[in-house]
Predict the 3D structure of the following.
Amino acid sequence: MTVNETNGRSRQEELGQFLTATPTADFMASMFGPLPRVVRLLDAGAGAGALTAAFVRMVCEKGEGVNEIQSTLYEVDPKILDALQTTMRECQGRCRASGIAFTFTIHSTDFITEMSSKLAGDLFGSLPPAFDAAIANPPYRKISTDSAERRSLRSIGVETSNLYTGFIAIIQRLLVPGGQLVGITPRSFCNGPYFRPFREDFLSLLELRRLHVFESRLAAFREDSVLQENIIFHAVKGRNQPSELIISSSSGEAGGEVTESIFPFGEIVHAHDSEKFIHIPSCSSHGTAKETMDGLTTSLAELGLTVSTGRVVDFRLKDALRKEPERGTVPLLYPCHFNGGTVHWPKLEARKPNAIMDTAETRQWLVPSGMYLLTKRFTSKEERRRLVACMFDPDQVKTEWVGFENHLNYFHASGHGLERDLAAGLFAFLNSTVVDQYFRRFSGHTQVNATDLRTLSYPDRNTLNAMGGEMTALDLSQDEIDQLVTKHLHACR
Ligand SMILES: C[S@@+](CC[C@H](N)C(=O)[O-])C[C@H]1O[C@@H](n2cnc3c(N)ncnc32)[C@H](O)[C@@H]1O
């Protein structure tokens, strides 16, 4: 009989007692970053100790310099304490076998009231403990405005309506700077209007490093059939949110594939959002991106095209560069000339030169005018997309020769421009969400090399031409581009 069965349904709900299955606990433990030699670990709402046990397994397997774990556990349910003791003895045995010291202290007291008093300084001479790491599956249950828990939390300036956010609010105060928390909680705090004060508190004390979601609502707690959407997060005590974080997802089935992507922090919590919603992009669409891309088999070479890095290395040709076009110069293009889907040239207000002298010496670095597709080699972290493509249209910028600077990649046909429809089709394809997401699966950084673009699979020439033929304008919205690309990629299957 499991502990949950012993406790019966209503008591289980009263305690918010939903135990973590071993594969989920192990997955959570795997999220910790480097740890100090002596780890003071907190497991608040410890249940039968599944999370501390997973942490211990991870440390014993990975090692990585930890030589002592001092574990502190809080659990109010007397019926589960024997099981918790047993698990801790097992942890001790496992650590001993791995040459790691393990001590544990079980507090069979209410975590919220005890820690709130310590944090509020109510208990004379009793400082709140400090922890290097915390692993938590806190109990969840609404707490009414006049409940003892609410009053305790209020005494430390925390106003929250659920036990789980109360637990997390306290845990984040007990971590030392750089201390880590891996928690599994309902996803409701990410956007629920009542959780706004909690989100503010959470994001001001913790730096988010990773968010993991389950594709199935039932997955993580299947045995208890809790209809909650759960989230796992890894966060570090500190005040500077990272520029990027990992978003991952899995079905929730044991051994299921984990899909991971990196997103700019600004896409997860929007800079000017006073609600501080935590947006979690759907990773299942990344799976779809892979399937779509796997269905494409045409190489760039088979399209008769190649992609090269812009040939003008500006600091080597300083003398030939001109801020403004003048007699004897040709256009020189930098990423700053990208303007939506097309090129805005000249851009006299920009700091970069707009022109390069066309001489016997510089000609070798120029290309004959034509329809070229350009991509940025470096995108800023704030930019929504990794792949940013735009068209150089000879009808818009009249010239015989043109210089592409080294911060650009350009698609060409043996050094010459592309046919219009093919270029427009490639433009749509490279700017589509499918390609961007596929790209993010393998590229964790913001640089897009010509080699990356050369090794990508493309739709065949007919499909690209058909896509391009339908492109009435280049300033389509992301949705319009995605619809067009999806329609043609499905049609070519
Ligand atoms: C969601 S369960 C998770 C148990 C365990 N950490 C796991 O992952 O399997 C939460 C646990 O917190 C305990 N709990 C509930 N309220 C508590 C409180 N105020 N202080 C300490 N523990 C509490 C419950 O009895 C339950 O065992």
